[in-house]
Amino acid sequence: MKDIVVLPGGEELSLDWKLSDPERFQLLLKEKHADNGKAGPGEKAHCLCVHQGRYLELQIRELGESYYFACMPNTRPYHRPTCPFYKPNPEKSGQAAYVDGVIKEDTEHDEVTVKLITSLNRNSPTSSETAALSSAGTRSGGKTQRRMTTLGLLHLVWERAGLHYWRPQFAGHRTDPKALRRAYATSRNIKVHRGITLDQVLCPVVSGDRGIQYFTQRTIKNHSEKLRLYVIGRLSSVQVHPYGKGYNIELSGIRDGYRMFMSISQAKWERLEKSYSRELAEFSRSEEGLAVFGLFLVTIDPIKKGKYSNFSTVQIEDAALMTTTEQLIPVESRYEAKIVELLVQKDRTFIKPLRFDAARKLVRPDFILTDMGKKEGCPMEVFGLTDEKYLARKAEKEKYYARVFGVDGWWSWDAAHNAPIPPFPKVSLPLVNHS
User: Fold this and answer.
1) Per-residue pLDDT tens digits for 123-174
2) Where is this region: Disordered (predicted)?
3) Are 82 and 162 in contact (CB under 8 A)?
4) Within a 13 Å sphere around the CA of 123, how many CA atoms are in the beta-carbon half?
5) Cα–Cα distance, 251 to 258 (Å, whole number)
6) Residue whose C-alpha is closest to residue 284's, from 273, 275, 295, 268
7) At what angle do helices 176-186 and 150-160 cross, to 10 degrees?
8) What pLDDT, on the 0 to 100 scale, is given for residue 434?
9) HSE-up (13 A, CA, CB side) for residue 410
10) Cα–Cα separations (whole angstroms), residue 431 to 50, 86, 319, 372
11) What is the reported pTM?
12) What φ, ψ does residue 136 adopt, rounded to 5°?
C-alpha cells in the first residue's frame, strides 16, 4: 500500500513526493494549509488509516517557509504500524523501561535519536563485557534503563520497520529481502552517534538482493576504518574456528558476494550463549518455521594478502539475537510461535510488543489483537512456565488485565499445563465513516 494523504477536497498526495518532488509537495501543502485549518470533522486531510470508524485526520503545520503534516493529539499509536505517522505507545512495549532522553523523538522529521550503551568509535572501549551482552531479564523493572543495548536497537529497527505487525494482506510478501530493505530504509531516521544515522553504519546481509549488497559494501568502504559497524541478518551456521580462536558465524546469503568472514572470540561467545541460550537452542534444533536474526556490532578490516585479499574479516564485539516466525514476527517461546501460526491462519491482524531492554516484570502483552474495533486493542497472554515466581507474576498480570480491560476484555492461554488453546475473540472491525 502506497503512503497517500487525502487533502481537503479529495485530492490525493503521495508522501513519496516529499523526496522525489519536494516543490510540488510543498506547493500542495501551502495551498491546503488554510483550508485544512477551517475544515470540520471528516473534511480535514487524512491518511488511509481507520480508527473507531473514521479516517485518522492530520494537521498541516507551517514552520518558517515550509509545511509538514502532523498527527492530531494522541492519535499516533492508532495508525497502522506501517504508516509513516505511526508511533507505538511506549507503555505497551519495553520502551517503557527507558529513562527520559534515551529515545528522543523528532515528529516533524519522523526521526529518533537514541543513546547507545557502546560507542561506535573504533578506538573507544566497548562496554559489552559489562552490559551489552547481559540478559535484559536480569535487570529490575520500571524506568531504569539509561542506555540502549544492541538488543534494544534491534527491536527498535524491527518496530519502526513495522515487522512486529501482521495483517492478512502481508501473506506471501514478508520475505527476508523485503524485511531487510524496510529495516535499512527506516534506519535512515535513527540517529545513533553524533549526528550519524544508523543507515551509515548498518550492513544488511541477505541473499538475492544486489541493492542491499551494494549498500553494505559502500558502508564498509566509507566508514569501517574509523567506526564500528552493525551487521544484520538471519543466522545460518555457527562453527568452531579451525584454529581454536572462538567461533565462525555465518548469515544467510553471506556467501553470495559479500566477501566477509565473521568470527567471535571464545569469551564473547560464552557471554552470548548465556544471554541468548533460548535463541541458540532453537537455532540448533532447527525448529520448523522458526528463524534467528542477529544484530552484530563489529569491527571490519580488509584482508591485504593471500588468495582472500578482496575479502574482509569481521570481528564481533557485541551481538543480539531474536527468534522469529516464518512471517518474521518476533517470539519468545515456541508457545508464542504456535499462537502466531494460528493467528495468521485465521487472517487476524495483530501486534507483537517488543521487549527492548525491559525487565521481565514489566507488564507487556505477548500480542495485541487490533481487529476488534477497540481503542486499545485486545491483549493476549501466553503463560508458559510453572515455577513459583512465574505463577506469582501470572496472578499479578491476571489482576492487572481484569482491572484495566475487564474480565472478558483480554485473552490468555495456559500453555504450561497443556490446556487447549481457547478460541480467539471475534473480529469486529467498524465500517469507515466519512461524515
Assistant:
1) 887 754 444 443 444 444 457 788 999 999 999 999 989 899 998 888 998 9
2) 123-144
3) yes
4) 2
5) 10
6) 273
7) 100
8) 46
9) 23
10) 9, 21, 45, 12
11) 0.83
12) -60, -30
The confidence score (pLDDT) of residue 17 equals: 87
Burial call 240-254: b when 16+ CB within 10 Å, e when fewer: eeeeeebbebbbbbb
Rounded CA-CA distance 237/111 in Å is 35
Query: What is the Cα gyration radius of the chain?
Result: 23
Residues of the chain with pLDDT under 50: 128-141, 431-432, 434-435
Which residue, 67, 72, 146, is CA-closest to 108? 67
The number of residues making up the chain comes to 435
Burial class from Cβ neighbours inside 10 Å (0-12, 13-18, 19+) for residue 420 reads exposed
Cell of 32: 491546503
C-alpha cell at 385: 512456565
244: left (phi over 0), alpha (psi -120 to 50) or beta: left
